[in-house]
Amino acid sequence: MKTVPIDAPCPCRSGHAYGQCCRPFLRGDAEAPTAEALMRSRYTAFVTGDVDYLLRTWHPETRPASLELDSALAWTGLQILRTVRGGESDRAGTVEFRATYREGGQDRAQQEKSTFVREDGRWVYRDALSQS
Question: Start and end of every YchJ-like middle NTF2-like domain (predicted)?
Answer without folding.
Answer: 34-128
